[in-house]
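Case study: Ferredoxin.
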Amino acid sequence: MADTTAGTAADATAWRVTVDRSACLGSGICAALAPEAFRLEDERSRPLREAAGPDEALLDAADSCPAAAITVTEGTEVIGPRP
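Here is what the predicted structure looks like once written out:
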């Protein structure tokens, strides 16, 4: 069942992590850099949670992804991968 409760102020600053599974090469770099955030499933990465607190390991995973398949956002701003 979906959570229909109103978000909190902390939710507004939570980071969102997405993986484009059609672009993912399954290298496993993200799971190695941030095992608490990613795992390989069916030879492709997937985030364990969509929302996460700020964590440098998430940005490192997005920066290191050879397919640029990981996106980290804060609100509407894309913060990873970094340029």
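For the exam, be able to explain this: The first helix runs from residue 9 to 13.
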